[in-house]
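hey
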């Protein structure tokens, strides 16, 4: 029977931090429901802080911090190189990052590391992003294999920004 003795898929998720928000709540719900026999789940973040951190830690999975205070600083690039080395060392098969800062940090590093599947999530219409940040986000999302969004309006906005619609998937927020 195919797949019976397969090792779990090595999946790494990246959040900016663990402060309360819709993205963090959805990621927590997803992690609580994921089949750990099928997925070897790990987390990374740019800041290991926030009210939800304890809830994530209680799920008994590694959480590694790659501390970044500013994306446009040489220290960020050094952390991206460390992150890429971590991805290679852990032999990560799927890297999934959430929202602007985590996507900009993790997606290029995952490409550099040769991760087979790179996923980026966008969960807002970028109302707080500057024109330069929107341009950077469009470039970074172009590096991802698939861009996951939680609403049709976000998909439409990304299409307006010039992203390839064939690479965007809408997965609406789930409620248990």
């Amino acid at each position: 029977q195919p797949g019976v003795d397969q090792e779990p898929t090595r999946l790494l998720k990246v959040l900016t931090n663990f402060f309360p928000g819709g993205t963090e709540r959805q990621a927590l719900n997803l992690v609580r429901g994921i089949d750990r026999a099928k997925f070897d789940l790990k987390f990374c973040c740019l800041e290991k802080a926030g009210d939800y951190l304890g809830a994530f830690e209680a799920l008994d999975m590694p959480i590694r911090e790659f501390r970044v205070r500013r994306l446009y600083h040489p220290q960020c690039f050094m952390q991206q190189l460390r992150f890429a080395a971590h991805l290679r060392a852990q032999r990560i098969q799927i890297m999934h990052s959430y929202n602007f800062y985590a996507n900009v940090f993790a997606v290029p590093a995952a490409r550099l590391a040769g991760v087979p599947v790179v996923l980026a999530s966008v969960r807002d219409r970028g109302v707080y992003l500057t024109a330069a940040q929107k341009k950077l986000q469009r470039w970074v999302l172009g590096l991802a294999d698939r861009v996951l969004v939680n609403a049709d309006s976000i998909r439409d906005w990304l299409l307006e920004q010039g992203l390839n619609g064939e690479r965007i998937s809408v997965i609406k927020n789930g409620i248990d």
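Helices lie at 22-33, 53-57, 74-89, 99-113, 131-143, 152-160. Strands lie at 9-15, 39-45, 63-65, 94-98, 117-122, 146-149, 168-170.
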